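Key result, reporting period 2: structure in, sequence out.
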């Protein structure tokens, strides 16, 4: 599959806006609780009652179904709880060892360009992975961020990060998930993102050992390059 190196993000970088709040939760956050908190925050951002926010967290093991999910792709429906969600995309897995970043930004202030926003999220992940020692890129026709690797001397491509967003009144929510050191066997209960010819991988499987805190530090640094300044708020 052809690589896509288009990373036009200039319309998303907004140094004239207030800093984006940067929140990190230390404990596992139940999925329904996270969605409810995002819904509340998105409404507050739209009303001008709260600033933009990025929320980093981990979930207990679960599967989530995006708006394009095919029921046939849920291979083991009883393995983990399954949540229908309003984000784009298909089935994905969330669980410990995977850094989820929920991105709540006001695209009215950032150009109202959904394609540029998705490209900016991709760029953010790619820059972060580069700092963590992993070369990654995007592929035409495939959502997410991918790595090339060798499997018994044969090349293969695996997904290391997924992207699924939703917009409400031009406020974004949901976001990205980056596989740091999750149990990759948990992906076997679904066909991730409806793709059967490629697999999933993680930083750990690729031989790069990083703590979640180290990953978070890199994510914040590269986020600021793509979207603008952040400010750390009380950790949840």
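The corresponding designed sequence is given below.
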């Amino acid at each position: 599959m052809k690589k896509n190196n288009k990373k036009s993000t200039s319309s998303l970088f907004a140094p004239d806006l207030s800093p984006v709040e940067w929140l990190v939760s230390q404990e596992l956050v139940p999925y329904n609780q996270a969605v409810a908190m995002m819904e509340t925050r998105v409404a507050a951002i739209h009303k001008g009652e709260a600033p933009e926010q990025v929320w980093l967290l981990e979930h207990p093991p679960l599967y989530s179904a995006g708006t394009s999910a095919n029921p046939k792709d849920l291979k083991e429906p009883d393995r983990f709880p399954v949540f229908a969600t309003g984000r784009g995309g298909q089935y994905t897995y969330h669980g410990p060892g995977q850094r989820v970043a929920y991105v709540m930004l006001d695209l009215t202030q950032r150009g109202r360009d959904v394609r540029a926003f998705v490209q900016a999220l991709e760029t953010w992940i790619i820059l972060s992975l580069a700092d963590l020692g992993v070369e990654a890129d995007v592929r035409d026709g495939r959502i997410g961020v991918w790595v090339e690797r060798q499997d018994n001397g044969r090349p293969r491509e695996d997904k290391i990060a997924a992207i699924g967003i939703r917009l409400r009144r031009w406020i974004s929510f949901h976001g990205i998930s980056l596989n740091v050191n999750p149990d990759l066997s948990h992906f076997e209960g679904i066909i991730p993102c409806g793709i059967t010819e490629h697999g999933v991988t993680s930083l750990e499987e690729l031989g790069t050992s990083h703590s979640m805190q180290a990953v978070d530090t890199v994510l914040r640094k590269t986020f600021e390059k793509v979207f603008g300044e952040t400010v750390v708020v009380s950790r949840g």
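The chain has three helices and 13 strands. The CA atoms of residues 15 and 228 lie 5 Å apart. This case is discussed further under Risks and Mitigation.
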